[in-house]
Design a protein that fits this description.
The structure is a homodimer. Chain A is 47% helix and 17% strand. An eleven-stranded mixed beta sheet of chain A has the order 3-2-1-4-11-10-5-6-9-7-8, sandwiched between helices. At the A-B interface, helix 9, helix 10 and helix 11 of A face helix 9, helix 10 and helix 11 of B.
């Protein structure tokens, strides 16, 4: 892979675009000096910022467009009327083979709708899913779907398992990732019928993945499995519940250290160690949700991410490309056994 | 309310029963000296323990039974064959008016099935729900359902809102609790059809509750609403995800303080303040899931709770009784507008 890596950026997506996008890209160059960026967005806003970021300017091509997708745009409207938007053009660059992946901090629903339309789903995948890496007691795991599909059938869940497996192999570097289905109990009888059927498929001989079985909500942060598979509604609630709980904890900790003079002094002494801990759970470190199941690499940054967060989202796109995620997932899909036919009675 | 409060205990339910149940009851007497306990379980196991707990012995009546429901017993089997079990007899005491409420740390599914059968649901309630209090950035909130109903329709969700409202008034002491429906986005268009219909009902004129609207997972710990309403699958995953995240955080914190000599010293100085913080999120403090919607008070303690945790579960039952939860919820149900009839076309 001697060729330069090319990443397309929706320079206009996100709460503080294009500033944060450009600063994030400049920052990503520290880790990936070999990347070339295609920047899509409004010249008059981007040029003055680029003038102050000479390293990025030397490693980027600016492609002007006046149009952009806002956070208020409905996905269907974005799809119909957003053909010249910065988001769409960045996706087009991936589809045309001009870019190896794209990153946007814009409207999630619009990005998913456009990405499906422009990149198409991989053969054997009915619906793409949103995935993200998160910290656990044992290291890092990946969870999907995080909101692309509010309702899922057993076939979707089996496909998500394969997509998550390929991702964990490529990006987390695990030779044999374990897969868990999120449920309300680990017993085989618990939960929806859909979950039981999906589990039976993943457990059957010839299953393409190493299926651990059902897991419960507390097993997510426990790191019981490498890949947590769930529908987009439950995954979205779980991810955001974990975020909310972390915030609560940080706030309680802050209040504890302000509680007395001794506690403040204790904080000063422990500060370097606490900072390391904070880095471990820093949401910016885990910024960058992957759209899996598409014929191309598309990564969604949090709309409110700062430059460090956006740089990490770029890092996810680069990692997926460099580690051959698309080849891996195509191989796995080819191995995926078809749904078992109902036995004739 | 000059009459003595009588609480029936399933002395044989829980990982370390009857020891923890009895120690928990003795502990609860410190906070509620006026309570009298009816203890259901095996005499030969309970008597020797009671001999060492003279205060409890003086405030308790032992009612012997050899039978008990184990964690492995299926709810349907418990219902059919468990008529002489300690769990069932404690519920019977509530139904017969001999006890004002009951607490069990045993098999959740069996307890729910038996409680429904013995206590019956309140008029206007189709299905009872499991509720629990949890800490938030703004204080405390209550969430339901936490697992009694894996699938719920809009009518169930509306009834849960009423049950949660009554609970928040009585036990949290809020004059006008705000109610939120857990969803994947706060916009009106997001999520399942069931959620949109339930929201429309709760928002309509004549709604029995102060409906805030949709909330997301991060709003749970954020304390955005006083009552979080959701189906039992999502609620169970959210609750356990929050528990898992808290554990992860505590472990990271522990590692941080062991990181260096200075950090250890810092810990010593801040220890009293940190202990206060730990108390705020101590899961034992929030032990005691309420079965709401029944014609009687039944509280489920965590099976692995210690004496402090079990005492808190007893406290929940006492609070619900003393604050007239059953009267409150009956009043609210009477006010509940019937489902709007579909307009003739």
């Amino acid at each position: 892979m001697s060729q330069r890596i090319r990443i397309a950026l929706d320079a206009m997506g996100g709460d503080q675009a294009p500033r944060i996008v450009l600063k994030g890209a400049e920052r990503a160059l520290q880790r990936f000096p070999g990347v070339h960026f295609l920047l899509y967005g409004a010249e008059d806003k981007i040029e003055p910022l680029l003038a102050k970021l000479p390293k990025l300017k030397a490693a980027a091509t600016l492609r002007h467009t006046d149009e952009m997708v806002t956070n208020e745009t409905k996905p269907s409207v974005a799809l119909r009327t957003g053909r010249r938007s910065s988001m769409r053009l960045a996706l087009d660059a991936v589809a045309a083979g001009e870019a190896d992946g794209m990153v946007s901090a814009g409207n999630t629903g619009a990005l998913m709708a456009m990405a499906k339309f422009v990149l198409k789903t991989l053969p054997g995948i009915d619906r793409p899913a949103i995935a993200s890496i998160f910290p656990t007691l044992r290291g890092e795991s990946v969870m999907l779907d995080l909101g692309a599909n509010v309702e899922c059938d057993e076939e979707n869940l089996v496909q998500f398992a394969v997509m998550g497996d390929a991702f964990a192999r490529c990006v987390l570097g695990l030779p044999q990732p374990t897969i868990g289905l999120l449920n309300v109990g680990s017993e085989e009888m618990k939960g929806h019928e859909t979950l039981r059927v999906a589990a039976a498929r993943l457990r059957a001989p010839g299953s393409p993945v190493a299926f651990h079985g059902f897991i419960e909500g507390n097993d997510i942060a426990g790191g019981v499995v490498d890949v947590v598979v769930t529908d987009g509604f439950t995954g979205n609630v779980a991810l955001k519940t974990a975020e909310g709980t972390s915030k609560l904890f940080v706030e309680y900790l802050r209040q504890a250290f302000r509680h007395s003079l001794l506690a403040r002094l204790g904080y000063l002494l422990a500060a370097p160690a606490l900072k390391k801990m904070r880095n471990r759970i820093d949401p910016r470190r885990y910024n960058g949700a992957m759209f899996l199941g598409l014929n191309g690499i598309a990564v969604k940054s949090h709309g409110g991410a700062d430059a460090l967060g956006f740089a990490n989202a770029i890092g996810v796109a680069v990692d997926m490309h460099v580690n051959g995620f698309l080849h891996q997932i195509r191989d796995e899909l080819a191995r995926l056994a078809p749904a078992p036919a109902t036995a004739a009675i």
